[in-house]
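In this notation, each integer encodes one residue's backbone shape. One such record reads:

___
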Amino acid sequence: MNIISFVPTGRENAVSRYDIAKAVGISERDVRFKIKEANKELERIGEAIVSSSSARGYWRTSNIAEMEKYLQESSRRRATQAKNDLPIQRIVSQAKGEALIYVKGHFRRIRVNPAQTKL
């Protein structure tokens, strides 16, 4: 079973994780896992399965602007979660006698010469 065939192309055709799970006959958690795996496969052809809370679902795209919007939303979610977890991190660190140093995880894009090979 290839999850890619259950995810439509285009934001306007976005389908919910629940609907995908129902159509495929797997759990919503498994849908998330299958989408991660599918994105590894789609990368080869310059496509990705992305989602958006405003579109309320998943869709396939090769549109770089849509991918960037997805990445921005994903980054905001991670930052919010890290802030929400900070008090718990402090409690655990203090209990273990450790210092807590937060380092914001990120990727940094750099321009490359097109003649260079892929990183």
